[in-house]
């Protein structure tokens, strides 16, 4: 049996996931947690499960806060409506990341993935699993940004480029620019490499929004974007950029 815990602050979502998990005879639900505070207490007082299904945004914080305060040897399948937390999730023993609403086939695939990591003697090699996770990482498809007291979901396909200014990374759409919680280095790891390319230390560009490419005899390459913006490809990236364009 796979001892399992659910971390979810929305009761309907928690009950639905519990019903879905009841279809898997190998899953034994040993706990349900609704907040960061409750999670820290539960994991401090109980034997840790092998598998954890965890929402990310809870009423009193992010579920990441639980596992930063109480280390667990269990592995986590995150369940959330937003995928902007992908990178951090994969740094915290996550083996999968399910976007809500959770589909039956996605849940089954996530459980099978977990089972495939566990040898017949039920031992867990954390380093080995983390290497497999690194190879299996999903690409970022949407980003949650703040506009005053409001939240807005932006599809990454709507972003013409990301840029760094005064130690803050912004994403640029046809509408306007929005600050993000990412660094450019983090974005390089999670963006679709077929669409996005780091042209210099300050910009990651989306090929769909390149309006013109200007070259000069001294190997300088400048990109003209929609909305209006000129971005220079750093000289040490010119060859890689040209190769990327024709992949």
Protein described:
It contains eight helices and 17 strands. It is an alpha/beta fold and 247 residues long. It folds into two domains: 115 residues, Response regulator (Rossmann fold, 3-Layer(aba) Sandwich), CATH 3.40.50.2300; 120 residues, LytTr DNA-binding domain (OB fold (Dihydrolipoamide Acetyltransferase, E2P)), CATH 2.40.50. The strands form five sheets. Strands 2-1-3-6-7 form a five-stranded parallel β-sheet. The longest helix is centred in the middle third of the chain and has 14 residues. It comes from Chryseobacterium taeanense. One of its GO terms (molecular function) is phosphorelay response regulator activity. Keywords: Phosphoprotein. InterPro entries: CheY-like_superfamily, LytR-like, LytTR_DNA-bd_dom, Sig_transdc_resp-reg_receiver.
Q: What is the CATH top level name of the largest domain?
A: Mainly Beta
Number of helices: 8
CATH superfamily heading of the largest domain: LytTr DNA-binding domain
Report the mean per-residue pLDDT as an integer. 84
General shape: elongated
Strand content: 25-35%
- So, CATH architecture of the largest domain? Beta Barrel
